[in-house]
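Side project, low priority. Logging it here so it doesn't get lost.
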Amino acid sequence: MTSFIQSYKKLGSSEPKPASFNHAMWLLLVSGLIAHSSACCIVTLSFAVAWALVGLLIFPIVLYGTYKTLRNILIVDAYLSITILSLSAFNHILGLFEMGILIGQTIFAVYLACLTNQQILERERLGILEESL
């Protein structure tokens, strides 16, 4: 039971990898909502499918990838969500609720990319400090 609790606490931390795992689960839900709402517009639908594929890529990167790979995929995630947001805003496809969720996903992806970048820089700084000693 304690191993389950420890694993659950890791997913709730502010570390980039567990937070990205949670973000990927929400991304899949939101991309499904966007794909369902924009079924009539093939361009927005294709971007929503690509965004869902990026969400699926986050899972193995969180488990086996490096921080640099995670940062790059989160930047792609933010780019695709901004693209879907702008397409939806111009075509009036999504309602206010869906656009609000999409804005939140975009902000959180950018936040996670920045947090991951800070972790990369901190690890490089600590590596340089250890080499100088």
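Brief comment: The longest helix spans residues 96-132.
Revisit when time allows.
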